[in-house]
Write a structure and sequence with these properties.
5-stranded parallel beta sheet; Rossmann fold; OB fold (Dihydrolipoamide Acetyltransferase, E2P); single chain; 18 strands; 3 domains; pyruvate-formate lyase- activating enzyme; 5-stranded mixed barrel; alpha/beta
Amino acid sequence: MNKVALESLGCKLNQAETESFARQFLNRGCQLTESVKEADIYVLNTCTVTHVADRKTRQSLRSVRRTNPGALIVAVGCYAQRAPEQLSRLGIVDLVLGNQEKDRLVELLEANRNLGSKEAGNPRPGFHRRTRSLLKIQDGCNSFCSFCIVPYTRGREHSVPPEEVLQEVKERVAAGYKEVVLTGTKIGAYRWNGESHGGLPRLIEHILDRTGVERLRLSSLQPQDLTPELVRLWADDRLCPHLHLPLQSGCQAVLDRMNRGYSVADYETAVSLVRHAIPDLAITTDVLVGFPGEDEREFEESYRFCEGMGYAKIHVFPYSPRLGTAAATMSDQVEERVKKDRSQQMLALARQSAQRFREQFFGRTMPVLWESKLDRATWSGLTANYLRVFTESEQDLTNRLLKVRLVGDHTQGLLGEIADGG
């Protein structure tokens, strides 16, 4: 029986694909392992959204080769799509598969080596013992934002047929998952049987009506996706009150250069709409600093906009030129030291904003889905609106959805006490 180690870098879409690889390997009788040293096969689902992601990919692959020289090392995904020759030249990868080929990963390996025994592997291997399952419903992007390499690595937009999505959700529920996360490159572009009308709202409605999922979460949306038809679905409290709405910049001039397709006013209007309609809503975002031409005034404008939005979490990224994108050829590239300074300023704001958001929930009792045990008695879990909660318990809380009183702050989230009766 081959032992397989899987690792994913970057976005939730990569994580969803890696979950799919795990199920396929298990169905071939392989055993999944968290130990790179013990693995016969190591698969890295790569990211190339920034130069830092590229560096992490190379570092991970080199580390695995040093730790386990005899393993079959496979690189798949976005970096493998963008620069396969570069990865091959490293001399530490045995197989490179881009996004157009990686769906055939297990099939190709099975054709070239005896993958596993006739009996299926453990259906709940160590690293795969999760309470949330990520499900890819869409891939690709047609937008071509000026800074983004994703349309070149993921290709054009396409959607998973609705009947397949529904079947996948039912299978995850039957396997014991309490929460399913719908993910994709751009899930707002979901098409129902090829038709754009009512695509994502209609899919969500069917999932809620026709499956027993206890929590349904959406991975990322654009402001223009937040139509009244979509927003009304949050009347069902199984749809988690958490929206990830990438902003990228709170300065209109920078947004225009980014070719984002919405204005600062559009974004603000969308946020106002959903906050009015969805109680306890957490809004998280992505912000780029140091985009070409961003001067001090423009950065300050973006900073002040973010300051006023009350985000639950801000992911901060210094701009990273990606060869082949429009922004990489723009004049007035910002110096690295300036990017670093602006990143630090925005990260400080992110910490303050997250703290203020958490403090709103002190003393509240909210359901928490417990995910993992951190040490002898400390457990970690999530509220529906994506607050990380920690508690002490001698019981096994794995995959239990319990009512918890939020009693105070924690360095990584909130402290909770399980309410009487759970």
